[in-house]
Write a structure and sequence with these properties.
- The protein is mainly beta and 331 residues long.
- It has 2 helices and 22 strands.
- The strands form 4 sheets. An 8-stranded antiparallel sheet has the order 1-4-5-8-7-6-2-3, with no helix packed on it. Strands 9-10-11-14-13-12 form a 6-stranded antiparallel sheet, with no helix packed on it. The protein has a 4-stranded antiparallel sheet with strand order 15-17-20-19, with no helix packed on it.
- A hairpin with a 7-residue loop joins strand 21 and strand 22.
- The longest helix is centred in the N-terminal third of the chain and has 18 residues.
- It starts with a helix and ends with a strand.
Length: 331
């Protein structure tokens, strides 16, 4: 008998050991079984990309085992979306050579925060109130329980800047007089090391404790603590307008040039106006001005990704209302 024909009928083409043949057969059988499973999910996404899964054993009302198809990826920290809900992969069994089996938590929080500028960032998160520590603050004027809980969310280029002592809000609540407050927490520990196992894992674990709402610093409207408002430059009466020409994205390791334009009340461009540029001084970003145009250059530093720079433009004589543009460093 031809050896290649024998391997073909045994599903062994390319396999070098009997174990590899057994694994192939197991993958084929499992895939066929999953396709007929009552837990099959055909319209799911993983990190925004379509991928099929099968729900397995329910751990609790909000935690499930989930099965990826053989040879498909499933990593700790992935965000899955199906049944009109989002889920975060908390754990993945890595020792299974056939398929990835994970534990997913139902997302119950959209965490909003800022990284030292006015840009509001949102991430799906799990607020896990499995209270492992509940104490009372020692100071007599602190009347809230110093409750420590966990928050899980993906670790990425924005969330990596979340730090200890950062304050976050989870929801709007009301005091006994009916006044709205924020339910706020302070981060006491940031962990993205001991919760990640295996290649591709990207989970962030925050330990937080209850904190006090500050009406002067926190935004009820945006659910953001220590809110940084955008810089506004309102048009003044009697002032003519100006504009900044150029892209709002600055590529890492690249450069962008921005043009100043000034317009009279009739809409004609005033080419005699002298531009005065203002910009955030940021390490790794260099700026140069030539013939009234501003050029920004970003260094090859991954720490710059996600940084937002604010450009301002006005004229030397003060005849035009200033304008502003926010520039984000991207890849």
């Amino acid at each position: 008998m031809d050896i290649n024909y024998f391997k073909a009928i045994q599903n062994a083409i390319g396999a070098s050991t009997p174990t590899e043949v057994s694994i192939r057969e197991a993958k084929r059988d499992i895939s066929e079984g999953m396709l007929s499973s009552i837990g099959l999910i055909t319209d799911a996404t993983r990190n925004g990309h379509p991928q099929m899964f099968a729900l397995a054993k329910e751990i609790s009302l909000f935690k499930y085992n989930i099965l990826a198809f053989p040879d498909d990826e499933l990593n700790i920290g992935d965000v899955l979306e199906f049944h009109d809900e989002k889920w975060i992969v908390k754990d993945v069994k890595l020792s299974n050579p056939i398929q990835r089996v994970g534990i997913i938590y139902l997302v119950n929080l959209t965490l909003r925060f800022q990284n030292h500028n006015s840009k509001i960032i949102e991430r799906p998160a799990v607020l896990d109130k499995g209270q492992y520590s509940t104490t009372i603050g020692e100071e007599k004027d602190i009347r809230y329980p110093n409750e420590k809980i966990k928050i899980y969310l993906p670790y990425d280029e924005d969330t990596k800047y979340i730090h200890m002592d950062k304050r976050i809000a989870t929801s709007v609540c009301y005091d006994k007089y009916g006044n709205p407050n924020l339910e706020t927490y302070r981060i006491t520990k940031v962990n993205h090391t001991t919760v990640n196992f295996g290649k591709g894992a990207h989970l962030l674990e925050l330990t937080v404790e209850s904190d006090q709402y500050s009406p002067s610093k926190d935004s009820l409207e945006y659910l953001v603590c220590d809110y940084i408002a955008p810089t506004e430059y309102p048009t003044l009466s009697g002032k003519q307008r100006c504009s900044i020409g150029g892209r709002k994205k600055l590529l890492l390791g690249g450069k962008r040039t921005y043009k100043a334009s000034f317009y009279t009340e009739s809409g004609a461009e005033d080419t005699d106006a002298v531009p005065v540029w203002g910009f955030d001084e940021t390490e790794g970003i260099t700026a140069g001005i030539s013939e009234g145009r501003l050029t920004l250059t970003a260094a090859e530093d991954e720490g710059l990704i996600g940084k937002v720079l604010t450009l301002t433009l006005k004229d030397a004589d003060g005849n035009y209302a200033p304008c502003v543009m926010e520039i984000e460093v991207t890849v």
